[in-house]
Amino acid sequence: MISEPNADQTAPLPRPASIVAIAGLLALEAAGVLAAAGWYLSSLGAPGPVPLGGRIFMLALLVGAAVWQAAVALNVFRGRPWTRAAALVWQVFQVIFAVPLLGGATTLAGIGLLVPAGAIIVLLFDPRVTAFYGDRAERS
């Protein structure tokens, strides 16, 4: 027996291209943080002012951040509404880290952090994204 859907049930919105773009950019950022963790691991034995325990803790923070960012990227793609705030907070911190890098020899690194963060922030407020997350009704 096939049951008729209720009149108040609506079909889920199709995944907009901006959601795919956000998820892809977040996944690239996660890969970048993981690469930074790999670079940090390679220099873990070098002498420095921070004791080994502190360096290992920093490495754990980098790996944890990469895993968290990858989880956010996956759940953005799946359409989980909580990911919008998580992605936005990460991008704000990324802008904060990028701005001091915009002068001198680190300008390219600053631009590399700033451009995807700006793109994600703009895309997070795209009307199709907010409708997909259920924040507002889609206009026809």
Task: Give a verbal description of the structure.
- It contains 5 helices and no strands.
- The chain has 140 residues and is an all-alpha fold.
- Helix 1 (17-42) packs antiparallel against helix 2 (52-78), helix 2 packs across helix 3 (82-98) and helix 3 packs antiparallel against helix 4 (107-124).
- The protein is elongated, with a radius of gyration of 19 Å.
- The mean pLDDT is 89.
What are the segments in which pLDDT stays under 50 over at least 5 consecutive residues? Answer: none
Output the structural class.
mainly alpha
Number of helices: 5
Q: How far from one another are the termini?
A: 33 Å
Brief rundown of the structure:
The chain has 140 residues and is an all-alpha fold.
Keywords, separated by commas or semicolons:
single chain; 140 residues; mainly alpha; elongated
